[in-house]
């Protein structure tokens, strides 16, 4: 019985083996290889999505410029997320990521509220200081509405510096609000 098994030639299986990566010259072989590998690539991407919950977009073009795509959940949502657009409106966005983003927004909001309360305190202290010193200014109008015609040079320079500081504070606050609104969109 041993002799009969030795006489039978074993069929050589190619199976998985390392191939040389170079351009396939035969057009038919190249097209077959392209089709099989494209299908294999899409299958592996699908498995990765199912196993790991990954979001994937793959674009493949043939030699004749035909476009083949694979995407999970869909190409548009992945591209929008990649470009940092519509991140809050993506219906496939996971709850964990939303919580992380929400925590970041809440943290920034708390920081801005703390700054706002500090500014109110400073303003209150300044108003108390101004009420105590008053320096001949009228109480019913804002300091920047004071008549400058009776001020000497030192007072005018101090007034100019205060107006510039006010302008810079207003500009900074406006930029902060715009940045916060831009972040929340």
Automatic annotation (TrEMBL):
Subcellular location: Nucleus
Keywords of this entry: Coiled coil, DNA-binding, Nucleus, Transcription, Transcription regulation
Record flagged with keyword Transcription: yes
Protein name: MADS box transcription factor
Any one of the GO CC terms: nucleus
Gene Ontology biological-process annotations: positive regulation of transcription by RNA polymerase II
PROSITE patterns from the UniProt entry: MADS_BOX_2
GO molecular function: DNA-binding transcription factor activity, RNA polymerase II-specific; protein dimerization activity; RNA polymerase II cis-regulatory region sequence-specific DNA binding
Pfam families found in the cross-reference section: SRF-TF (PF00319)
Coiled coil: 95-176
Domain MADS-box: 14-74
